[in-house]
């Protein structure tokens, strides 16, 4: 209970300010009492689900809905708080001015709240509220196909126009609508790409989460094959305590990838040939600069069988692997012999990797994108400066997929689930 006290106190402050705004518009006791009754119900449901039901950090569907309910009703109140708090600051100065300028009591000197401000605050707050409602009921399965053409000077001529479909972050443990997922898989196949590349996080934590969806994803197909890597959630560290359990989960995941038809690359490479020319598909295990995520990805291992001066496409789940400047080391990495902490980032690696495909960020499942103005924003940018779409540095490209599924919050607001079609073009 202790860990919830401060968050609930902060939420109570938001509720109090929203109540002030509501009371300015209506004196109906049923509405005002109902407002606080709803607050009690929301807090109770959230606490019950997060503390009493969820004994570990595996996210169930019900836990997700509890989070969604809480955020939908709480986040818009930040807008109300901002408006009324600014108004309160102005009222403080107004009170002091009125009190010292004339013969009046302190109570009489306090300016009243303006009805217009309350109306404006509640009106603007309705926008994120509607966004969250849409995000939960429609947005999470609002699949978008994004086509990205990338030009390379050193692309083999035989691969000019080569099409790759990238999907990432399936998070099958969060799904609850089979028809929507079947539609998305069909949408992937409709792109008729030459190869499909999956960049990790097929489950939330537990291999069995994928079992209800195996037959659906088994329908994926591409003429040059389907290749995959693991993401941070695939290792089971979020669900298991012992090495034996983690290893068992890993073996089950390997079998799942094989069943679907994915060629799982664990610090390994594959070669695709056309007309005597070739490109390499590289895949590393998860590598994240954050101390919270496993560092198992080895570029040296993945490229040891790759010829020099060839065209390389790398799958690396976490985009921080691309150009990290500093590495946060957790205790498990410091003392784990399997941790890869002695390699440079992808940009500085001794072998050129022309294109890196990543996922991981989900675009935080919340943000604003206006393609016409080439504008995109999400709070996740403050943790991952490269968080969605195409980036270029030192002649190398990074594409970050916004994710196929969702995690924790069962919705997407402004950042839609993505199927990426990348067309390779020769300059």
Task: Give me some keywords for this one.
11 helices; 427 residues; alpha/beta; six-stranded mixed beta sheet; single chain; elongated
Q: In a nutshell, what does this entry contain?
A:
The chain is built from eleven helices and 14 strands. By secondary structure, it is an alpha/beta fold. Helix 1 packs antiparallel against helix 2.
| Strand arrangement, major sheet | 1-14-2-3-4-5
Count the helices. How many?
11
**Parts with pLDDT < 50 across at least 5 consecutive residues:** none
CATH architecture of the largest domain: 4-Layer Sandwich
How much of the polypeptide forms β-strand, as a percent range? Answer: 15-25%
> Which bin fits the share of residues in helices?
25-40%
Task: Please write the string of helix (H) and strand (E) elements.
Answer: HHHHHEEHEHEHEEEHEHHEEEEEE
Task: Chart the SSEs and their pairings.
Blueprint lengths: L1 H24 L3 H25 L7 H41 L4 H4 L5 H23 L6 E9 L9 E6 L10 H13 L4 E4 L15 H4 L8 E3 L14 H18 L1 E3 L3 E7 L2 E7 L15 H5 L7 E5 L4 H4 L7 H5 L19 E4 L9 E3 L4 E3 L11 E5 L2 E5 L17 E9 L1
Parallel strand pairs: 1-14, 2-3, 3-4, 4-5, 7-8, 8-9, 9-13
Antiparallel strand pairs: 2-14, 6-7, 10-11, 12-13
């Amino acid at each position: 209970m202790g860990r919830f006290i401060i968050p609930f106190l902060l939420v109570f402050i938001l509720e109090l300010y929203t109540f002030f705004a509501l009371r300015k518009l209506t004196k109906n006791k049923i509405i005002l009492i109902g407002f606080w009754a709803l607050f009690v119900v929301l807090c109770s449901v959230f606490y019950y689900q997060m503390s009493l039901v969820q004994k570990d950090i595996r996210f169930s569907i019900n836990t997700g809905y509890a989070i969604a309910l809480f955020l939908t009703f709480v986040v818009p109140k930040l807008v109300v708080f901002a408006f009324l708090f600014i108004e309160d600051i102005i009222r403080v100065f107004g009170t002091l001015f009125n009190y010292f300028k004339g013969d009046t009591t302190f109570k009489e000197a306090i300016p009243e709240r303006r009805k217009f401000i309350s109306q404006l605050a509640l009106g603007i707050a309705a926008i994120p509220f509607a966004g969250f409602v849409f995000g939960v009921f429609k947005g999470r399965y609002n699949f978008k196909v994004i086509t990205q053409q990338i030009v390379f000077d050193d692309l083999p001529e035989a691969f000019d126009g080569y099409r790759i479909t990238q999907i990432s972050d399936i998070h099958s443990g969060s799904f609850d609508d089979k028809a929507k997922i079947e539609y998305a898989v069909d949408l992937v196949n409709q792109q008729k790409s030459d190869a499909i590349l999956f960049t990790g996080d097929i489950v939330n934590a537990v291999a069995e989460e994928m079992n209800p969806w195996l037959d659906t994803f088994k329908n994926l197909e591409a003429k040059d094959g389907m290749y995959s890597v693991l993401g941070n959630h695939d290792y089971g560290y979020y669900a298991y305590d012992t090495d034996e359990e983690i290893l068992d989960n890993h073996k089950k995941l390997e079998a799942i990838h094989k069943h679907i038809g994915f060629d799982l690359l664990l610090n390994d490479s594959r070669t695709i040939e056309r007309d005597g020319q070739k490109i390499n598909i590289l895949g590393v295990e998860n590598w994240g600069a954050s101390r919270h995520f496993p560092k198992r990805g080895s570029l040296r291992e993945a490229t040891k069988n790759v010829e020099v001066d060839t065209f390389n496409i790398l799958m690396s789940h976490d985009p921080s692997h691309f150009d990290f400047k500093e590495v946060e080391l957790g205790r498990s990495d410091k003392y784990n012999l399997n941790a890869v902490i002695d390699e440079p980032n992808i940009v500085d690696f001794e072998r050129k990797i022309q294109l890196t495909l990543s996922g991981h960020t989900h675009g935080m499942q919340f943000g604003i994108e206006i393609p016409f103005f080439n504008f995109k924003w999400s709070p996740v940018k403050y943790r991952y400066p490269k968080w969605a779409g195409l980036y270029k540095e030192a002649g190398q490209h990074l594409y970050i997929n916004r994710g196929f599924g969702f995690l924790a919050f069962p919705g997407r607001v402004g950042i839609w689930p993505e199927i990426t079609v990348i067309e390779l073009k020769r300059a």
